[in-house]
Amino acid sequence: MAPIQLVVFDLAGTTVKDEKEVYHCLMKAADKTGLPVDGDRLNSMMGWSKKQVFQTLWAEQLSPEHPDWETKVEASYSEFKQVLENHYCTQSVQPTAGCLELFAWLKSQKIKIALNTGFYREVTDIILHRLGWDLGLDRNYVGSSESVIQASVTPSEIYNSEGRPAPYMIQKAMYKLGIKDSQKVIVIGDTPSDLQAGINANCLWSLGVTQGTHRREQLEKYPNHGLLDSLAHVMVSQNGAGELIIGDSHESGWNPDPFDRTEINQYILDYLQTFVRVPSFQIAATWHGVYAKLPGKTEFIASPEPGVTIVNGLSGAGMTLSFGLAEEAITSLSLG
Predict the structure, then answer these.
(1) In the Cβ-directed half-sphere of 9, how many Cα atoms lie within 13 Å?
(2) Which of 13, 120, 205, 257 might form a disulfide with 225, Cβ 3.0–4.6 angstroms?
(3) What is the C-alpha separation between 134 and 122, in angstroms, rounded?
């Protein structure tokens, strides 16, 4: 298999938590502008360009040749934009479980990260800014190896604002990052249109996550190269005494609860038992850490005075990055 050069992720429902907020914003806009909508029909279009959603729904009520069709599409889409932007400006915006850790691991492997979405550029910018993922991106939404992501693409940058399931946003990300071979690209999303876009772009893998808008039994009906419960992962390391160190879970917030949650520990153990066999899964001890976050960075390195270097892993990604980060820091010190 050729080395992977790029992973293209969807935004809401895949890398950004979405408890059906986008669905409800669409429903609210439809209701306010007099557009009848069936919930299952709307959910089947999640992942599409949102203007295309309203074009399709109104076409099912009126022919596109009807003199009022375009006016009604614009009215619904305009209302949706107001509702959606207000939501992302005023409500909590958080990465999904395992997202930041996966980003950090991809960075350690020198694999580039691109985000695409069914959202238009303005609201995408709001989301990226709230998360700190826009740091390091230039005016063309291309970053460097030091930025959290290396590219962002929306339907706004595609001819006629065409989104998924067309492959163009994936191909645009490849073009921006100088990647010519789609067989070195993986696509991950939570909707049928994400899976179809990856297949249409002839990517190596088109993977689905079942934590978003669609359940496993819904996504497995569509061509795919694998379905994941989430972006989270469990790591296991055995020490010299034969003990297993298992990790780990993360919660983000301005004032996180300092206590372990039993149900999260049990979830990790339940998942661990699907691929590891040991005599006992009883927890002997737990470690709870509180970590600082610095938007756009996975580590903090400083030299406050000659002969002193501080190296600190950020955002709780230490188990993922510690060995590689330590090697880089020591190499840098010996070269210096």
Answers:
(1) 26
(2) 205
(3) 13
Spatial CB neighbours of 273, under 8 Å, sequence gap ≥ 6: 281
How far is the C-alpha of 93 from the C-alpha of 18, rounded, in Å? 9
Nearest to 210 by CA among 14, 10, 16: 14
Reading the block at residue 273, the tokens are 């038992």
Would you write out the chain's pLDDT as a tens digit for each of its 336 residues?
A: 568 999 999 999 999 998 888 899 999 999 999 999 998 899 888 888 888 999 999 999 998 899 999 999 999 999 999 999 999 999 889 898 888 888 988 888 899 999 999 999 999 999 999 999 999 999 999 999 989 999 999 999 999 889 999 999 999 999 999 999 999 999 999 999 999 999 999 999 999 999 888 888 999 999 999 988 888 777 777 777 888 888 776 665 666 677 777 777 887 787 777 767 788 888 888 877 777 766 656 778 888 998 898 888 766 566 566 777 788 788 887 765
What is the C-alpha to C-alpha distance for residues 230 and 248, in angstroms, rounded to an integer? 14
Using DSSP's 3-state secondary structure scheme, residue 154 falls into coil
Pick from 180, 105, 108, 160: which is nearest to 170 by CA?
180
Which residue in 54, 56, 48 sits closest to 164, CA to CA?
A: 48
Per DSSP, helices labelled H in the chain are: 21-32, 39-44, 50-59, 69-90, 99-108, 121-131, 168-176, 192-200, 216-219, 262-272, 318-335
Q: Which domains does the chain have, with CATH numbers?
A: 1-232 (3.40.50.1000), 234-290 (no CATH), 299-335 (no CATH)
- Bridge partners (DSSP) of residue 10 are 116
Place of tokens 């645009």: 172
Residue 217 parent element (H or E): helix 216-219
Q: Are 147 and 34 within 8 A, CB to CB?
A: no
Least Cα distance to 314 among 152, 148, 96 occurs for 148
The whole-model pTM stands at 0.71
